[in-house]
Amino acid sequence: MANIYFDNAATTPIDPRVVNAMIPILRENFGNPSSIHTDGRISRSIIEKSRKSVASFFNASPSEFFFTSGGTEADNMILRCAVHDLGVKHIITSPLEHHAVLHTAEELAHKEGIRLSLVNVDGKGQVDLAHLTSLLAQHKEKTLVSLMHANNEIATKIPLKKVGEICKEHDALFHSDTVQTMGHYNFDFQDLNLHFATCSAHKFHGPKGIGFIYICNDVSLKPMITGGAQERNMRAGTENIYGIVGLTKALELAYEDVSGHQKEIQGIKSYMINRLRETIPGIHFNGDSESEDSLYTVLNVCFPATDIDEMFLYNLDIQGISASGGSACSSGSNIGSHVLSGIGASADRPSVRFSFGRFNSMEDVDIAISVLEKIYTKATV
Ligand code: PLP
Predict the structure, then answer these.
(1) I need a labelling partner for 314 at 20 to 30 A (CA). Which of 114, 150, 256, 322 fits?
(2) Mean pLDDT over residues 228-247, rounded?
């Protein structure tokens, strides 16, 4: 049976080179980084070396990076602390954001009376920049704009630099959830008017449970998790030192040849688009995922209606193909996707997200297509 993993937007398999970088830390560097003795100081220096290395990939200062447990914590911290510490009274976001942003913004609106505006999006998931501008012009209170760089379900990207410029013109803070794009694209934080960005290592072949927040030096927040003075008083709790080393190694590997990686994965995605088109008539692609400007790791396919719609993913799974319907984080659940409904995608047809990573090949596509062809010829009504 095939064993093809096409759910890399949910999580990626860890790279063995990352595991090898983490093992000596797990074995030997047990010292608490807050301890003042030699064991502690060694652990501390490993963390600070990692922070320096992380910053070097983004043309930013190490003092702008804070390690967290991943993307969800980082997104939560930015929204909550922007309201509590920076006097933000208005959050503008989109209906297609990850729930780490959307649910947090909704809670801040319900419990703390923050104004919440949802910017219009079109059928491809593109943010209406004129509407964003008019929302910013209309409301003069301190505003945080939170818009994801690339959508985890439908691959649509925002023009990060342009959105940053619009925010700057209106004196708004700008956060971008970059969880799906860090390690997949180059970022120059000196060149982007971005106050906050977020990262999660397990999206680029690193370990789970570790990520970071980028907070530009012009703004300062207070911690969301309180306790000890770790992360320069910004995030309490004994540091996940082997996770930090794993994240740094995964980032190093990702940025060794990011354009080569992009070319290779885009090749796999384009091949899958072509093979799907020639094999299953009536197929189309949700959001912007077909375009070469979209996030190259994600392809969201809307299949023609079948008599096994509900069982489509299950059928793929029993044939050894891991993919997902709806959001990565609720894959396996039957809750419909707020992203697909937000762009008005058909609810009568099965949609499947295939997402690609470093360990996929063209052969994987051929195998998946032959499985789909089999399922499809049996199932079509
Ligand atoms: N933001 C986006 C766009 C995501 O895709 C995810 C995970 O699927 C997250 C945030 C949450 O990241 P984590 O799993 O590290 O909490």
Answers:
(1) 150
(2) 97
Distance (Å, whole) CA 229 – CA 312: 49
Candidate from 153, 175, 180 with most ligand 1 atoms within 8 A of CB, to mutate: 180
16-254: CATH class: alpha beta
CA atoms of 310 and 297, how far apart (whole Å) = 25
| pLDDT above 70 (res 329) | no
Distance of CA 158 from the midpoint of ligand 1 (Å)? 17
Give, using CA atoms, the residue closest to atom 9 of ligand 1.
Answer: 71
Reported as a pLDDT band with limits 50, 70 and 90, residue 327 is very low
Q: Name the residue ranges covered by the structural domains of the chain.
A: 4-13+257-380, 16-254
**Please, what is the angle between helix 258-279 and helix 362-379, to 10°?**
30
pTM exceeding the 0.85 threshold for the entire prediction: yes
Q: How many A from CA of 207 to the centre of ligand 1?
A: 13
Is residue 326 pLDDT above 80, yes or no?
no
| Whether residue 199 lies in the annotated active site | no
Number of Cβ within a 10 Å radius of residue 14: 18
For domain 4-13+257-380, give the CATH number.
3.90.1150.10
Confidence band of 170 (pLDDT split at 50, 70, 90): very high
Taking the CA of residue 73 as reference, the ligand 1 atom at the shortest distance is 16
Of 150, 156, 157, 256, residue with least CA distance to 203: 150
